[in-house]
Amino acid sequence: MRRRIVRWSVAAFLVLLGAACPAVGVAMASASQAQPDQQRAQQALSDLDREFLTVINFANLWEIPMGKLATERGNSQAVRDTGAVLAADHTKLDTVVNQLADQFGVRLSDQPSSSTQGWMDEISSKNGEDFDNAFADRLRAAHGTVFGLIAEVRSGTRNPVIRDFATQANEIVMKHMTLLEGTGHVSAQHGMFAEAAARQPSYPENTLTRGDLLLAGLVAVLMAAATIGIVRTFSAPGSTE
């Protein structure tokens, strides 16, 4: 009787294993095949990578002149000093982003966008403390928006060159936000967070999906249960009957 139980246990184990393993094998094969695809992807740019270069370019086109204007028209020393740092840093970013655009064949604009041109006109029309408020508020809001995009690119890009540039840009934008907030002219009531909350991050797909991992876990549980059952059957008194 016990031998019959053993035979049925082994048969059931083999059936379960045979049914599950092909699916796991397909998942593993897909993972192996994905490796060359990932290596090829490192040499190209995703749509998000291209958007990143475009956004940094547009940021440079309006923040460089506004930084320079702040050094001349800023009412407080903090605003004048912050303007000088922003202009210098974005000039460096502009050099790099244009080099990368040439390297990867991305066309960049040489004119500010309509929205940033509107911000430039708004800031340029102010004087005294009103200038300081408009300058700090607008640039802090813009940096907050770009900061979210940079984080998304840094965590998701498959291109090592873009990843390095995103790391550099992340450090600079974080520094700028801190400086702008330190001027004392950034106010939540003026909408500094409104634009920064606009983006919804997307995430790169994992090589193995959640379903693949759950299936592999199920196979492991079934194998363990079948093994325990067989061992207990053989170990029981009279197992050879």
UniProtKB/TrEMBL annotation:
<feature type="domain" description="DUF4142">
    <location>
        <begin position="49"/>
        <end position="178"/>
    </location>
</feature>
<keyword id="KW-0812">Transmembrane</keyword>
<keyword id="KW-0732">Signal</keyword>
<keyword id="KW-1133">Transmembrane helix</keyword>
<feature type="transmembrane region" description="Helical">
    <location>
        <begin position="213"/>
        <end position="234"/>
    </location>
</feature>
<dbReference type="InterPro" id="IPR012347">
    <property type="entry name" value="Ferritin-like"/>
</dbReference>
<dbReference type="InterPro" id="IPR025419">
    <property type="entry name" value="DUF4142"/>
</dbReference>
<keyword id="KW-0472">Membrane</keyword>
<feature type="signal peptide">
    <location>
        <begin position="1"/>
        <end position="34"/>
    </location>
</feature>
<protein>
    <submittedName>
        <fullName>Putative outer membrane protein</fullName>
    </submittedName>
</protein>
<dbReference type="Pfam" id="PF13628">
    <property type="entry name" value="DUF4142"/>
</dbReference>
